[in-house]
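Thread: "does anyone have the structure for this chain?"

Original post by V.I.:
We have the sequence but no experimental structure in hand. Need at least a predicted one for the grant figures.
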Amino acid sequence: MGNRRTSGTNLEDPARGYADAAMEFPRLLALLLIVLEWTRPGLPSPLRPICDLRVLEPFILEARDAVVAMKSCREGCRLSESVTVPQTAVEADVWSKKTALEQAQEVQSGLWLFQQALNLLRTSVTNAALHSHIDNTIRNLITINAVLRSLNIQEYTPPANVAELQGTWRVSSATDLLQVHFNFLRGKVHHLLVDAPACHQAVS
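Reply from O.Q.:
Generated one for you, tokens below.
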């Protein structure tokens, strides 16, 4: 990724190359399933639920790489203004008491907040190397939302005012924004996929 070292001959570590290819496969599989199912003419019902947690792994790894790249950035990597982000902590007893709809809306609102914040970050950052990480992160959010739709989760309607959302806070640095995004994916998004009723129905 952006923090990868290369030698003078620009040769990459073959083992890392195999790891990258393995990491990319679940995302390509998810995208293929989404494209094939959502573009089928006369589809009577939503596509089959995508319940394999390995689909989420490359998004988490790329989110981590974005954090590492941002931490090493010295110029052209500032956030122009503070942004609203979701809380990431997951208390098991509190989470389990929420309905499936409440869990889904909590995750969807968080993904929507990240989309707004990352779009602002994209216009704020002038470091070309970071643009690739940010663009990948934005594309990944779109794919994750498509995965959620495969779980029969209804499309999210954003609020008219961000202040209406509960369980949020504000960050003022690009590093903090990307770190919170990373924590959110491996926390609440992961829990939502694990607990999704559509996945339990699929295996029952």
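V.I.: this helps a lot. The first helix runs from residue 14 to 38.
O.Q.: and The beta strands are 83-86, 168-171.
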